[in-house]
Amino acid sequence: MTSAKVNFAPGEVIFREGDAPTTAFMVESGSTEVYRGADNNPQILGQLGPGDLLGEMAIIDSSPRSASARALTDCVLTVLDHFQLRERLEKADPIVRALLLAQLRRYRSVLGSLDRRAVLRAGPALLGGRRLDDLLEPATGKIRLENQLKQALEDGSLELHYQPVVSLADSKTHGYEALVRWQHPERGVVSPVEFIQLAEETELILPVGRYVLDRACGMLAELARRGHGDLHIAVNSSARQLLDDRFLEEIGLALEHHGVRPQCLQIEITESLILDVEAVKRFIDGCRSLGVLVLLDDFGTGYSNLGHVHTLNFDMIKLDQSFTRQAIDSPRCLAVCRAVIELSCALEADVVVEGVETEEQRALFRDLRCAYGQGWLFGKPMAQEAMLARHPDKSG
Ligand code: C2E
Ligand code: CA
Ligand code: CA
Fold first, then answer.
1. Between the ranges 121-135, 195-209, 215-229, where is the mean pLDDT highest?
2. Which of 258, 272, 277, 282 could form a disulfide with 221, with the two C-beta atoms 3.0–4.6 Å apart?
3. Atom number of ligand 1 nearest to Cα 180
4. Dihedral (C-alpha) 114, 116, 118, 120: value to the nearest 10 degrees?
5. Dihedral of alpha carbons 90, 95, 96, 102, sign
6. 52 in helix, strand or coil?
7. Which residue's CA lies nearest to atom 22 of ligand 1?
8. Is the CB of residue 375 below 6 angstroms from any atom belonging to ligand 1?
9. Closest among 255, 263, 196, 193 to 231, alpha carbons compared
10. Using one digit for the tens of pLDDT, what is the confidence trace for 344-394?
11. Mutate which of 198, 213, 236 to test ligand 1's pocket (most atoms within 8 Å of Cβ)?
């Protein structure tokens, strides 16, 4: 996985006609030109500037470069490896459309009025009546964000925040849920809701997942060293991880590497991710042999499939925060919460109620004999220093 920025001086060749396509580029700054023929007698095909893609055409059809490109000014280009683009091309994705549209744009600028007329003729059908720039912008923005995310991963600048999960009976901290945060250089903190989804669109979620797992296990080791080896950390998983045979192996390796008791690690599986029940079942069985606990996350969102609850052997069920909010005002919602807690109890799975924000909600779920709670009432997700400050060193 590469994600590099490269600099070119004015006149420097970026790639040559006939070269094998290995990478595409995104122009970050400066101006480039695409041309055919000799360097000293070029047929100029077009100029590309910031935000434009360069060299993606050869990646699309895996054929040799059909033109050369060189820098007109000092340029900074982001290298896009072909896996990043190929994967997208293989699936229906707005990026695919953008790549093709970028090609059209090239042809328009390159081939002059003849093509402009062709593009204009094809335009309305391809663009759905929208402006080319409006369509390209979200997709190129997405590619840029994805590259920055790769960079963040390489720099180690993703952080885990930890949100307490407490026992409702005695308010003791049972453990934490690890929630990833990205401190973006320009945008500030980017929500995992945005970048996890982006990472899930390609294999990038796999290194992100490994990173989170490694950090969480490192934290469990530190807590144990401080004499708090009874605390748990729950890590979120993604659909791709669950379908990847290496995930279990990585969990085993991370536990071993950090010398962590498997019982302290919990893996959360969101209900909507259970598309391949057999694969998830194999994963849960694998976790069970390792001694790692598995939680069903966001139970009650989307379609709640009771089949999952009885065929898949979860250790805990997390009741989604939408229930927590409504249980106070809606007797019907309360009845569902009571039934879910009883059902879980019969299946010997503890329930964690999510999104507890008020004392009233805490009391209600404690009285329903729900084992654990998580939410702002007990603590917002906190940086690792703040979390560790709650668990002073008892070792010496
Ligand atoms: P989630 O697993 O359901 O995580 C709980 C989300 O609810 C967190 O949002 C948390 O900050 C928020 N929350 C907790 N308590 C309260 C409360 O009392 N009130 C309200 N209104 N919200 C509360 P966050 O951190 O933005 O995470 C969003 C989602 O991103 C997570 O939802 C999870 O699906 C995903 N995510 C986070 N970290 C990771 C990760 O490392 N890997 C993967 N695959 N997904 C992750
Ligand atoms: Ca979760
Ligand atoms: Ca959740």
1. 215-229
2. 258
3. 38
4. -150
5. negative
6. coil
7. 355
8. yes
9. 263
10. 999 999 999 999 999 999 999 999 999 999 999 999 999 999 999 999 998
11. 236
Q: Which residue type is seen at 374?
A: Q
Per-residue pLDDT, averaged over 38-42, amounts to 89
The minimum-distance atom of ligand 1 relative to the CA of 212 is 41
For the CA of 199, the closest atom of ligand 1 is 44
Q: Is the CB of 376 under 6 A from ligand 1?
A: yes
pLDDT tens profile 85-104 = 666 666 656 776 677 667 65
Q: How far apart are CA 358 and CA 375, in angstroms?
A: 9
Q: What are the CA-CA distances from residue 271 to residues 203, 305, 316, 339 (Å)?
A: 21, 8, 13, 18
Mean pLDDT of 188-193: 91
- Cα–Cα dist 3/196, whole Å: 18
Residues within 5 Å of ion ligand 2 by Cβ? Answer: 236, 268, 297
Q: What is the pTM of this model?
A: 0.80
